[in-house]
Amino acid sequence: MPERLSFNLNVQKTVEVILWISSKNPGSVGIYQILKTLFFADVFHLNRYGRPITGDDYAAMLYGPVASFCYDVLKMNELATAQVSEIPFKRDGKFVVPDRPANSRFLSKSDVEALEYGWSKCKDGNFGKIKDESHEHPAYDRTWSKRTTDADLMNFEDFIDEEHKSQLIDLKENGPNIQI
Fold first, then answer.
1. What are phi and psi of 69, to 5 degrees?
2. pLDDT tens-place string over residues 48-74
3. Considering the domain boundaries, does residue 15 fall inside one?
4. Nearest C-alpha neighbor of 21 from the set 57, 63, 58, 54
5. What are φ and ψ of residue 12, in 5° steps?
6. 91 phi, psi to nearest 5 deg
7. Is residue 110 included in any domain, yes or no?
8. What is the pLDDT of residues 24-36, one digit of tens each?
9. 30, 96 in Cβ contact below 8 A?
10. C-alpha separations of 160 from 68, 80, 137, 151 in Å
11. 36-53: b or e for each residue (b if 16 or more CB lie within 10 Å)?
């Protein structure tokens, strides 16, 4: 059994999630809002449906939990962008401007439900409020309080609420095989 609960990253879905979130208010959605919307959406989706949306690993960083690959794509990190067939958005400072709508073929109904939930927590763009709420999450707090670097990897197991902990054995065994 794997030591840490993990999932397979879906690169294309990550791009479509970036487009979906940045399309909520084109030209006015920042990187921070995208990353935190995805975090809250992944927590929601993992608890309700037993899998995260993109399978991206999270790091506990100074300003909260960060989906690692998503962050690298948003920063236009060369290694990350090399894995993406197209970058269908532009950066305008800290804001992300989509070149096209998200391809809904890549997002399930439950993905969109979770993204709507995450967006509802981040849409006002209030940095302090978003930061405080993400820092209060046990998954972030557990990792950050014991960190050895400025970006320690978080454990998906800590994303799961007490009432859903019974699904952990199945997730640990099957997480790497779940289609994201």
1. -65, -45
2. 999 999 999 999 999 999 999 999 999
3. yes
4. 54
5. -65, -40
6. -105, 135
7. yes
8. 999 999 999 999 9
9. yes
10. 19, 28, 11, 21
11. bbbbbbbbbbbeeebbbb
Q: Is residue 4 part of a domain?
A: no
Pick out the chain residues at pLDDT < 70.
1-2, 168-169, 174-175
Residue pair 88/19 in contact by the 8 Å Cβ criterion: yes
Is the separation of the CB atoms in 59 and 153 below 8 Å?
yes
Phi, psi angle pair for 153, to nearest 5°? -70, 130
**Which range of residues forms the domain containing residue 18?**
11-177
Tell me, yes or no, whether 37 lies in a domain.
yes
Query: Can you read off the two tokens belonging to residue 33?
Result: 């809002």
Structural domain count, the chain: 1
Q: Which residues partner with 1 through β-bridges?
A: none
Distance CA 57, CA 9 (A): 8
**Partners of residue 67 on adjacent β-strands:** 58
CB 17 within 8 A of CB 107: yes
The b-or-e profile of 66-105 (16+ CB within 10 A means b, else e) is: bbbbbbbbbeeeeebeeeeeeebbeeeeebbebeeebeee
Identity of residue 156:
F
CB 18 within 8 A of CB 89: yes
